[in-house]
Amino acid sequence: MTVRPGYRGTVVRTDEIRTELGVLARLHPLGTRVRHACGREGTITLDQPPHVPGTFDGRPTARSFADTSNGAAMVCASWDNEFGFDRWIVWVPMESVRTVERQRVNRPGLAGGAR
User: Which pLDDT belongs to residue 106?
Assistant: First the structure.
């Protein structure tokens, strides 16, 4: 997606858009860890309306539909980075991310009882 200075998303306040965004929200809820196709990991996060690309319902969101002929689903994530940025938020096509399973913490004594 090309960044255009001064670009604003398209607000569509219909039940249809809200329902479709709700479906996307169940696929990747806020706080979900994801891995981009390039290998970088991040966390699904909210973005404010002035920064949301594509079509959405006008509320702060982490999901939208691209303003392209196919209307691909987009997702917002705060990406882990080696640059020292506190938050590096970038919108990417939802098809380019996969959910990352959290590592399980080994807590001795919980599964096996007292020793």
Answer: 55
